[in-house]
Amino acid sequence: MGKYPKRLVEVDLPIKRISEHARREKSVRHAHISSLHIWWARRPLAACRAVLCAAAWPDPADPLCPERFREAAKEEMLKWVKAHLKLLSSNSLPRFLNFQKTPELLCDNIQLRKALLDFIADFADWDNSNSREYLSTVRTLTQTAHEVLGGIVGTRPLVVDPFAGGGSIPLESLRIGADSFASDVNPVAVLLNKVLLEYVPRYGNRLADQVKKWGDWIKEQAEKSLAAYYPKDPDGANPIAYLWARTITCEGPNCGSIVPLIRSLWLAKKSNRSVGLKIIPNIPRRKVDFEIIINPNAKNGDNGTVRRGAATCPCCGYTTPVTSVRKQLLERHGGANDAMLVVVVTTKMGQTGRCYRLPNENDILAVENAAKKLKDLEAEHSGALSLVPDETISLNEIRRISIPLYGMLSWGDLFSNRQALALATLYSQIKRVIIKGDSLFEEAVRICLALAVDKQADRDCSLCRWISQNENIGYTFSRQALGMMWDFVEAPFISWGGGWTSIIDDIVLLINNHSVFKHTGTTGCFSATNHALPNDSAHIFFTDPPYYDAVPYAHLSDFFYVWLRRSLANYDNVCLNERLVPKQHEIVVDRPHRLSNSNKDISYYENELKKAFIKSRQILQKHGIGIIVFASKSTASWEAILQAVVDADWIITGSWPIDTEREARIAAQGQARLGSSVHLICRPRYEANNASTLSKVGDWRDVLQELPIRTHEWLPRLAKEGIVGADAIFSCLGPALEIFSKFSKVEKASGEQVSLKEYLEYVWAAVAREALTMIFEGADATGFEEDARLTAMWLWTLSTGANGNGTISAESESTKADEYDEDEKTPIKISGFALEYDAARKIAQGLGVHLDNLTNLVEIKGSDARLLPVSDRAEYLFGTKKEEKKVEKPKAKMGKQLSIADFIGKSLEDSQFSGGTKIALTYGKTTLDRIHQSMLLFGLGESGYLKKLLIEEGAGADPQFWRLAQALSALYPSTTAEKRWIDGVLARKKTLGL
Question: Residue 619 to residues 190, 586, 675, 741, 867: CA-CA distances in angstroms?
């Protein structure tokens, strides 16, 4: 290897504290870059900021660290501590007071390293991100590190991100004092980065002032044109939202009634107030009427007219199937323009809360007049682009953009006539913005205003939902998909407490907050496989590439791109020349569907990602460092990206998981979900003075010998930081791959080359064995039977630890069955504990367990594997004959405790415990079986039979029984019945004298 000092990020990182700041940042709304424009899966600034500092600065404890950096770091830490103690959080004070009282501690390079890491952790705090004191220290250290590591004096280190996306990494590069080069193939992302990296640093508060000025002017002009289409109530109340329902015609025999498609009848659903709708069938007129009711019956509030796409007629009770519903809407382009206005939400000066009323003639007339006005404007309109977007929605992502199945074939179909009129009015005013004498500044102001129109479109679209829990307007992109919304909310752009004014204010606040940068970055619009920078020009490569098929960025971006092109029709930029967002060079996997003609499969993804990583390695200087962020619960996507990294001649030298997800994002039990973003630390395999490492061959036996040693070092370290489960497994891949990736290839004694895929099987096995040792601390894990080992490891994989999200998850909380059609494989809540089958197979194989031998414990369906909940094992555990019909567990009646008889459909008199023989409630075959039997007996209140099992049958006399029970108690999620049952059994141990 070449001679260079390790960077801090290759040695240590305060991941627990950084994770806390990253999670907290998710709740920051004002002045955050997310307030500029939506972007999907944007990296938390806290994590980017911390990792960038640690990547830019050498480790002072490394023997090769230049002394000049050590001296600068020591000086900055002492100066910073003495001068700025008041800036530190209370948690930081003890650490830094020690340094202040005993400065000689910093003469110890290990202590100096700790001081730098403490500083980085505090700098990750959102409240410290713009502090001049923090910024001064950070930029001094970044500049010093750059110069002592071979950078030209007077220049700054260059950070390159070829998948710039929402701009978190490039923006934080500027913050720490580096130069930033951000590129992306997506023009929407390019414009976002252009504002953040070029316009905001260059113009600062001047830009904010002009955006505010022209934003207010646009509002005034638009109000003059649009106010008549959003009339106030006679009593002065202001409509702030209109609730609509798409409709179909009932296909029931002799009915033909108009059926409003309403998912829920709740208007307000709070602990101290509830308001709902009551549907009143009007059979003679073949329609329905509505009544607004206060404090409705909870059950009635949940009963809408549509369920999983099928609509039930309130007049005749007939349910029109989803295929017919879709067909009717298909003929009407989604049905937004002939939807039924159901409720108008208003506010009034001096009035507390929202008011709800039924629509009146003025409301209907205003909508009709808006439609006429739009039609007139379209007739008068000229130019290359239509007034309302008519660009076709691609079918290549129909799995997640399913609206074409309901007739929304163009992007304009997503908006009702009045919504389209409002947006067209707003963007047409941007063309009238004139700032004399500075065309570049005028361009900056216009782009900011165009992004504001995009934000208005996101909150005023026929795919927006009224949120009854907080009585507010939802957004189109509540998730990374566009599914059908049966009932929707229309938000006037002049709505009080929101709308255009709030959007402009948010952008202005963002610009002002980020005007602390002293230099600009650079943006480019091109593919990561064809980068514009020359070789050996970058110092840090830091990127968050697309994850397999996780987010269809280009397809989703079309929603905004079509409005941007209209807002910036006279803006000459090559990235806006295409009719839609270019998709040819986007490196993703398109989910297959019968309507899709995409050929972007896993092979395409791997090949293109490899090219991108090769190009990034080439533009990086030989002693530079790379960071690749990845977060996915799919083993296939992990293997794909790791294969691309290794094939592109990178050595992975470290791996740090940073928890980036809020607890509120976790929805329900079901699947392991990666709560952390794993940062893979990489170096180019070749060095300037040692190119021979490109051809170095590793010995398979040596690699296998080193693997468990590295895993044993790393996994307990992660556990101390609160990183366990799937997060820990994927985080171990980095250190494990450091062993493998430092060689150009690894060969067995026979000369056969070892593939990465084969090596990863051994990695999973090593992690599983090490995790099992941690789970059964103080006991020999091999002494447990295979079902116990598998169950413990399975539950551990699903756990989230101190840094985690609190439970296990299936999908985002915004995923609702009613938003999907039956072609989409609707996500459902899964009973039990589910893992991706491939992950389950790898875990089992590593433990020497064969899943096929445990069909009474594990259920495999397609690509998923499910560890059965204990209740589902009752039939097996209590000996019910398989040929007998299984009796479903009945619901407990008020005041009645369920019994074993209820559970298995037989009387206790027939059981072994009562001396009978018809049903053999046999003593469990394994320790896990006996524990599960005891858990069920406790849960069903059968204390007598529980005592017999533990004492008379001897289960409680087995030390392994209690060791396993203790382990399971720590592993079962706190919200599950299993957790309550196992803790109940453990509590009986003492009372029974065991």
Answer: 20, 20, 32, 20, 47
